[in-house]
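pasting for ref
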Amino acid sequence: MNGTEGGRGRRIVLWRHGQTAWNLERRFQGSTDIELTEAGLGQARRAARLLAALKPDAIVASDLQRAGATARELAVLTRLDVTYDAALRESYAGAWQGLTHEEILARHGEQYAAWKRGEPVRRGGGELETEVADRAAPVVLDHAGKLPDDGTLVVVSHGGTIRTTIGRLLGLDSPHWESLGGLSNCCWSVLGEGARGWRLLEHNAGTLPEPVLGDDA
């Protein structure tokens, strides 16, 4: 699943949603449906102006409201419809959801350490990262497959889901997905299609470096 036929010059832009209150509080959002802050909406508007210059051919987004609100800012500028898909939601993390980083360490420290070591962990009793990739990556590839030659797809999703999807499309083994690093709010990564599959062209692009707040959130 790490490429497509032929190398038609297509691009996939994976765009993380704007800031939420839970990002600021370092609470693990997971699949909890949290809205953007006013600052997050402003981030989406600024980023949308940059992404519109890429002249995208299609936009697909997670159906959670923080991703949907982000996607709509680009849709307004490009006059494209947004396709929403629940398969692009953030990782479901069960008992971790709603907890701050400090609370996760205090209550689930061993589980957190195992996850950071790259072990397959059901955080809070939720999804494995490979299961997130299993649901999200095929959706991204399906929409990319409908692009014209040299076309661009914008995928509006969440930090953890984007990282696992990139890892899967690049053909990386899952323990190495963490090495991709996080995305700041409303930043994006770009995959380009070559003769041997997808390549990472940009990562965490879009602004001057900012802290990564609640990457899997």
